[in-house]
Every structure is written in structure tokens, then in C-alpha cells.
Design a protein that fits this description.
The complex is a heterodimer of chains A (249) and B (637). Chain A is of the alpha+beta class and 249 residues long. Chain A is built from 8 helices and 7 strands. Chain B has 637 residues and is of the alpha+beta class.
Chain lengths: 249, 637
């Protein structure tokens, strides 16, 4: 099939960017979206031009490194799928696709479709952990965890930190990302001692790093390649309010 | 070069405890005076960086990805082994030790493997305390399952995302230390060389992948947790960025490279679909619990599937291995798939695939149960191939997955360069010639959480360090060499992309040094690799400059190293004139076609020493002795 791409090209964070059109003939339906871009890049390299920059690594949908907008949808049209796992058979001959980087103040564009997501790491560094230095752990079965809690915790822990939730949110909020971690750890007995502190510190870090607020639009849930529920945001808000009223800090 | 494994004396079950007591300690108040560089943030590197920082050392941590959370450990699916014996089914530290030595086909160091089995139980405690959401029973205790090559249930898992969850545990511990200022994190930064001062590892040269800035970092010790070199084969299950540059640069500075020919091939991957293919996707081995593997009995049988009656289907694993059937170890399953495809009985485009059929399982268990067990894998398969495995059999084919070889290390995980430690898949130490399922995660975390933090202290406490400042001649020299190499690559204006040359190398390696190897094929590969390398330097093109984000430059630099390592892999494969584990030399097989070891001549580690450009590397032997697990022929009949 034949696909027309309009790709956001921007040399670095300082220079302005614009869309550039590429006609891609002979696209095989078995190609992944990123393999299709590899082929476009091979063509550009052969002409001595700079290939399209995009982040990717595992290409199995788990490392969270890939991601950009396809016709305004984070990771493209297929639900619950990262762009590396999206295959061209989901498109039709003659389709015209607009590729853009994640758009958010907290995610400056580095080059073309790649952005700086280090703000997400800073949210984790603020409190997205259980403080248990190596060697200080009790016997693993000493603390039973109800199966239902473990499963709910795992649902939230499945977050791959790709940033699609931020890109999809009109407020560029990182609430789903932050709430997934607050939920993952807050549901486990091991996470209780720091539960209040964690909620306050992580929400503060989210605000400090330039992300917007949640207004319950649920765009994030629709875009999340791991289908993480906005129920986690409700949990985060509960923890945050409870901690705000009860904390002595 | 002298290889001294420094295995402590005494009974094997006491070696590690007694050794820990003998290790010198760094006074708590003095730890902050030492800086340690850790390259890599996977299970090994991430856990090491976090643990060293918790102890009070100053840590500089590097990764090429945009965040430490993305290291390729994250893609491990199945689980992590530990000798907890929670199911009460007869597991023990001794049994895990025994299984790992035997599974490695008697080519690992007994003392290291025993320590790994001992530590395995602490790893689970640590990960649970960090909040890793392992699968649970209804009573709240941890759940276990069995995994390839073991007859007990000792594998802990978090759905099909065990690697992800363990890595996030280590990453969160690491981020905590970053937040506390104890670790300085350098993401999107690639190590391009190792700096030695007076024969000791004292720093690294890096390139910032966004700005192109090349700079030196100085420390008192350097730790490499940079993963394996499976991407030498271009198509593998590794992440696209995984590469050998860090360990290869260390090799060229004097670290011995052990057993490079030990590569593991995973039997259940999705076959290649076209020449644009960028990587191969692994499907969890657990599929072999219920799927039946077959090919048509007749060659080039093009009939539609439903026209091939059962009598004309060859369930070749069940036929050849009646007791293990479809559950034979990875190397055996892979070789058999290759054999039937070589006979012209392979299925799918290009004839490089075999069926993994769930029709019987669906009949026996119902769609519901099959969906419950394998739903996520079936979905992934359908996303990639567009075929519905509930209705048509999956097609699978083996792919390069893991490398057991790596930089040689002693019992303390120190390489032949003083002050250079190597952990996780990057070293060679614990898996011998074949790694058992669910053991890679165990080894990475054992090294990073519980071995390195002790042993590195001994080195720091017993070494007098010369002050090395930014103007030191050795720093300037190595940095200059890196700049020179980078400049040369940037000026490459040939006609071919690095990827196209890498594909060529990968195909050669897969054909001649893949699942089955022989002297003639290896000789051919050894003749062709230098030709490809020369073509690479003549024909590669790198667009853009060195002072910007430049993926073509990164790829070309990594490929230059893969092209050199490929030659060492084949040299080692030719020299090891026996079959063992994942290294199958066709000349050496039992009448049934199984790997035939030669313990008389090859019961040793082959550690290769770099001797300068254009020179043949020199091989040193570390003899292996088996005092506790006696040398036997593996049998899965």
C-alpha cells in the first residue's frame, strides 16, 4: 500500500520545527509502524539527508521508550498498543498520516519526534518508592498480601512510563502516571509507612515539573497502551487529601 | 595475563560466608570519599548503583536510554528462580545449584553457581519489600510455577512482566538515591572507552547522545552492567540499542573476554516476515506447556492446514523425546526446529518456521482456559502477525536471545583489569554453556544487590589511589582517541547505511555461527568477516555531524565493535572443538544427535586476551573442576 506521511521535523530544542511530507510507496502490511519509518529513513540516508529521529528500544511494547502522535492519537489508532507494536495492516492504501511529538510544556522536544521525559523520573525520585535499603528486608512470606490487592496493584504497576497520558491530556497532566505509582505502592502493606508522604511529595513534584491538573477528561485512560484505569487517579486524590488533612509536615 | 579466579578455600557451602568475613571493610565515614562509576541501569547495573549509594559511596550512573527504567531487563517475561522451597516440593539451595551447573552443561564455575543459589532467597525478600507485585495465592503467600529444565516449582513471577517489575523495583531504589543526591544519573549517555591509570580502571569516556559532547569521568572503580552482545547477529530478541561497545572497549584495554561463542537461542520466537524486519519478538516459553509443535511429514507440503491429516503431521519433539516431549530444553528444541526446516519441511514464508498448535489444548481445556493462561501472548502474536492463534496454529522459529559469554571475572566479579568489575549478562560467570529459564534475572540482581557491594569494598579498602585530576595525561589521551574515532565515523560518506551492513553481518553469523556450527562454516565466516569490516569502513555513510543527536553515528560506532567481536565469537567457536549447551558443533554429536562434550580437552573457560590491532588474540584457560556435581551426559529422552 501507499502511505503519505507528514512528519514534524525539528533539528533541536532551540530551532523551530515544521511538517515535512514523505510519500511512502510499497508499504507491506506486515511491517510495524517503526519498521515503516526505518524504511523511510533508509531512503533519506541514501540521499544523504538526516533520518527522522524517534525514540524506541525494545520494540515489544514494554520499555516505554517509543511514542508519538499519529493523526492526533498518542501511539496511533489501536487501543492498548504502543506504536512499536502497531502494524501497518491497521491502515489502508492511500492513508495520510500526521506524525507529531508528544506536546507538553514538561516534555521539551529534543529532535523531530523525540522529547525529553526526564520530568517523569523526577516525580518517581520525589517519592515513588518504598525506602528499603538492600539487606534490610524481612522474609518474603512474613507479610501476606491478599490476592485481590496484589492483582490491583499489578494492574497499576504495569505502567511503562511512556508519557502517552500526558500527551493525550488537554491539560498535559501527568496524573495517570503519578497515580499509577501511588496506587501500585499504596495498595501493598509494604507501602503503608510512606503512603501519606508519598502522595504529597509526588503530587508536588508533578506540579513543580510543569504538568497540568486533572479535570477528569479521561483522555489518558483511552491513550494508555497498558489500559491503566483512571480509578487510580481517584485513589491518588483520596491519599493526597487524607494526607493533606492529617499530615503534621 | 594470569587468570586467578580467587575462589576461596573451604567447603563450598561456607565459601561465601567465610569470604565475606575475610573481605576488608571501608569505614562508614570514609565511603563518601570514594566514587564508583556504574555503566548500565538494568537489573545488575541499577541494583548495584542503588545499593552502593545506600552504603554511602558517591555513584555516577550511565545509560544510553532516556531513563534508567528502560534497560532491556524490562522485557524479561517468565520469572525469577529462588530456592525458597515454598511449595514444599523438595527444592533446596543445593538443588538449584545442581540444576544450574547441569543445565549449563558443566561449563560454569561451581563456587559462583553455589553462591548464586544461596543468594537467590535474599533477592525475593528484597524485591517483595520494595513492593514488587509478585503473583499471590488466595492466602496471601507468594505463588510459584515450574519452568524449563527444573522438576520443582521455584519460579516467582509477576504475570508475564517479571523483568519489568523487578527492574522497576531496582529503578525506584535508584531514583530514591538520585533524589537524595547520592547518585548522579547520566541518561542518554554512551560509554565509548575505558580509562586506565597505572593499570587500574579509573574512569570512562562518554558521549552525550543529545549534544554530542565527549567527556571524561574519573572514579576509583568502574562497574560494567551493560548486558549481552546478542545484537551482533542483528536480528535478536534484544532491544535495538543493546550493544557490545562497553565490554568490547574494556576488552581492548586489557579485560579478558570469556567464552564468546556461548550464545543462547530461544526456540519460541515469531519468525522473520520480511527483509525490513528490525528485530525478533520472543513468545514466552510457557507456551510449550500446552502447544504441540509439528511440521508436515512431507517436504514442501503446500496443502491448506485442514487438508493435512493428523497422520501426515510430524510432532517431531514428541516423537524423538517421548518423556520430555515439547518441553525439552531450549537448545534441543531450537536445533530440532532447524533440522526439520533444513529438510525442507518448514512452514510459512521462506520455509523458516514450525507450527505451535493449540487445537488439542482448546479441545481439551476449552477456549476460556487457554485464554486465561496465554491470552496476552495470543494477543501479542495476533498484533504482530495478523493471524488468530485460536483458529490457526502459531508459527515459531528460534532466535538469538542471550549470551552466556562475556568479560571474564574472578569470584569477586573483578575482570583482569584491577578496579573494573563486570556484572549481570555482561560477565561470563554463572550459566556455563547454557542458561536455564528464569535464571538471568536471578543473576543480575544477585550480582548487583548482594555480591558487588561487598567485594568492591575490599578493593577500595586495600588499594592506594593516586589522585587523578581532569588534566591527567591518560585522560586526555583516551579522550583524544575517542574523538578521533568519532571524527572518522562522522566523515564516512559512503553509500550504505550502518543497518544494511549490520544485516549482512547478522545473516553470516546466523548461518555459520548460529544454532549449529562446523569447522568449514566457521572458517568461511572468519574469512568473510574481515571483508565485511573493510567494506564497512569504505562504504558506510553517516549523515549529520558529531555535535548533535545522531543515531547513524551511534549505530556505526556500535557496528564497528560488533564487527570485531563477531570475529572473536567465530574464533572461539572454531577453537572449542566440542559441543556443549548452546554451542553445537555438528562434528560432535551423539548417535541421537545430542551435544557431545569433550571433558578431556575442553573442561575449561576460554578467556581471550587482546594483543593489538591485526594480531591474533591469545587464549588463556581457566580449568574447571567439578567436585560436587559430577560430569554426566545430559539426557532428556
Amino acid at each position: 500500500m501507499r502511505i503519505t506521511l507528514h512528519v514534524w521535523r525539528q533539528k533541536n530544542a532551540k530551532e523551530a520545527g515544521s511538517f515535512v511530507r514523505y510519500d511512502v510507496p510499497d508499504v507491506s502490511e506486515h511491517m510495524s509502524f517503526l519498521e515503516m519509518l526505518d524504511v523511510v529513513n533508509e531512503g533519506l540516508i541514501a540521499k544523504g539527508q538526516d533520518p527522522i529521529a524517534f525514540d524506541h528500544d525494545c520494540r515489544e511494547g514494554i520499555c516505554g521508550m517509543c511514542g508519538f502522535m499519529i493523526n492526533g492519537a498518542a501511539h496511533g489508532p489501536l487501543r492498548g498498543t504502543t506504536v512499536c507494536q502497531l502494524h501497518m495492516r491497521k491502515f489502508s492504501d492511500g492513508d495520510e498520516l500526521w506524525l507529531e511529538p508528544w506536546r507538553a510544556k514538561a516534555f521539551p522536544v529534543l529532535r523531530d519526534l523525540a522529547v525529553d521525559r526526564s520530568a517523569l523520573d523526577r516525580i518517581i525520585a520525589a517519592g515513588g518508592f518504598i525506602s528499603v535499603p538492600t539487606g534490610s528486608a524481612p522474609e518474603a512470606n512474613a507479610l501476606p498480601v491478599p490476592k485481590e490487592k496484589a492483582e490491583l496493584s499489578m494492574d497499576a504497576a504495569a505502567c511503562i512510563g511512556c508519557g502517552a497520558c500526558v500527551a493525550a491530556c488537554p491539560n498535559a497532566s501527568a496524573s495517570l502516571f503519578t497515580a499509577a505509582k501511588v496506587t501500585h505502592l499504596g495498595l501493598l502493606p509494604q507501602g503503608q509507612p510512606e503512603r501519606s508522604r508519598r502522595a504529597i511529595a509526588m503530587v508536588a513534584a508533578m506540579n513543580e515539573n510543569g504538568f497540568g491538573h486533572c479535570t477528569n477528561l479521561a483522555e489518558c485512560e483511552a491513550a494508555c497502551p497498558k489500559a491503566i484505569s483512571i480509578e487510580t487517579i481517584a485513589r491518588m486524590n483520596r491519599d493526597f487529601f487524607a494526607a493533606s488533612f492529617s499530615s503534621r509536615d | 595475563m594470569q587468570l586467578d579466579a580467587k575462589v576461596p578455600s573451604g567447603p563450598i557451602e561456607k565459601k561465601w560466608d567465610e569470604h565475606r568475613f575475610d573481605l576488608k571493610l571501608v569505614n562508614p565515614a570514609n565511603k563518601r570519599k570514594y566514587t564508583v562509576i556504574v555503566v548500565g541501569t538494568g537489573l545488575a547495573g541499577g541494583s548495584a548503583a542503588a545499593s552502593l549509594a545506600e552504603l554511602g559511596y558517591e555513584v555516577e550512573n550511565f545509560c544510553f536510554q532516556d531513563s534508567p527504567r528502560r534497560a532491556h531487563s524490562i522485557a524479561a517475561q517468565g520469572g525469577i528462580n529462588a530456592a525458597k522451597n515454598y511449595p514444599n516440593d523438595g527444592d533446596s539451595i543445593w538443588r538449584l545449584f545442581y540444576d544450574t551447573v547441569k543445565g549449563g552443561d558443566f561449563r560454569a564455575r561451581e563456587a559462583n553457581v553455589h553462591r548464586l543459589a544461596q543468594i537467590s532467597v535474599n533477592i525475593i525478600d528484597q524485591c517483595v519489600a520494595q513492593g514488587v507485585p509478585f503473583a499471590r495465592e488466595y492466602g496471601g503467600t507468594l505463588a510459584n510455577r515450574s519452568f524449563g529444565g527444573a522438576q520443582v516449582s521455584r519460579t516467582f513471577y509477576a504475570r508475564g512482566q517479571t523483568g519489568q517489575q523487578l527492574l522497576l523495583g531496582a529503578y525506584q531504589a535508584l531514583e530514591r538515591q538520585i533524589g537524595l543526591g547520592q547518585v548522579r544519573m547520566h541518561p542518554r549517555t554512551e560509554m565509548l572507552d575505558l580509562i586506565l591509570v597505572d593499570g587500574r580502571a579509573r574512569g570512562i569516556v562518554t558521549r552525550d547522545l543529545v549534544t554530542g559532547k565527549v567527556e571524561c569521568h574519573v572514579a576509583d572503580a568502574v562497574v560494567l552492567g551493560t548486558g549481552g552482545y546478542g545484537n551482533t547477529f542483528f536480528l535478536s530478541t534484544n532491544a535495538k540499542g543493546s550493544n557490545c561497545t562497553a565490554i568490547w572497549r574494556a576488552y581492548k584495554r586489557g579485560a579478558a573476554f570469556a567464552n564468546p561463542c556461548y550464545t543462547q537461542i530461544h526456540p519460541t520466537c515469531i519468525p522473520v516476515s520480511g527483509d525490513y524486519q528490525s528485530k525478533l519478538t520472543l513468545m514466552s516459553e510457557s507456551l510449550r506447556n500446552d502447544g504441540r509443535i509439528w511440521v508436515p511429514s512431507k517436504k514442501e507440503d503446500t496443502r491448506p492446514l485442514d487438508r493435512i491429516p493428523d497422520a501426515e503431521r510430524d510432532y517431531y519433539l514428541e516423537r524423538r523425546y517421548p518423556s520430555f516431549g515439547n518441553l525439552v530444553p531450549r537448545d534441543v528444541a531450537s536445533r530440532n526446529a532447524k533440522a526439520v526446516c533444513d529438510e525442507g519441511r518448514g512452514v510459512g514464508p521462506g520455509g523458516l518456521g514450525v507450527y505451535l498448535d493449540f487445537a488439542d489444548a482448546i479441545k481439551r481445556l476449552g477456549v476460556g482456559v487457554v485464554r486465561e493462561r496465554y491470552g496476552n501472548l495470543f494477543d501479542m502474536y495476533e498484533r504482530i502477525t495478523g493471524e488468530d492463534p485460536y483458529r490457526v496454529p502459531m508459527r515459531i522459529y528460534p532466535a538469538i536471545h542471550y549470551t552466556m559469554g562475556g568479560l571474564w571475572v574472578d569470584y569477586d566479579l573483578m575482570s583482569t583489569i584491577p578496579g573494573l568489575y563486570v556484572i549481570g549478562e555482561a560477565n561470563f560467570s554463572d550459566h556455563g554453556a547454557n542458561r536455564l529459564g528464569a535464571s538471568a534475572l536471578m543473576q543480575g540482581l544477585a550480582d548487583g544487590y548482594f555480591v558487588l557491594p561487598y567485594t568492591i569494598g575490599n578493593y577500595l579498602a586495600t588499594t592506594k589511589f593516586e589522585k587523578v585530576d581532569a588534566g591527567h595525561a591518560e585522560l586526555r589521551k583516551v579522550e583524544g582517541e575517542v574523538r578521533e574515532r568519532t571524527k572518522k565515523l562522522v566523515e564516512s560518506r559512503g553509500k550504505r547505511s550502518a543497518d544494511s551492513i549490520h544485516r549482512e553481518l547478522g545473516k553470516l553469523m546466523w548461518d555459520k555461527c548460529g544454532m549449529a556450527r562446523n569447522a568449514a562454516g566457521l572458517g568461511e565466516a572468519l574469512a568473510k568477516i574481515p571483508e565485511i569490516r573493510e567494506r564497512f569502513h569504505r562504504e558506510v555513510t553517516v549523515t549529520g555531524s558529531g555535535e548533535e543527536w545522531n543515531r547513524e553515528l551511534e549505530k556505526a560506532g556500535r557496528l564497528a565493535d560488533h564487527l570485531e567481536l563477531a570475529e572473536l565469537i567465530c574464533t572461539d567457536a572454531l577453537e572449542r572443538n566440542e559441543s556443549c549447551g548452546g554451542h553445537f558443533r555438528e562434528e560432535h554429536q551423539t548417535p541421537e544427535g545430542e551435544a557431545l562434550r569433550n571433558d578431556q580437552d575442553f573442561c575449561h573457560v576460554s578467556a581471550w586476551e587482546y594483543t593489538g590491532p591485526g594480531n591474533k588474540p591469545v587464549m588463556h584457560k581457566e580449568p574447571l573442576t567439578f567436585e560436587h556435581v559430577h560430569l554426566t551426559q545430559r539426557s532428556y529422552k
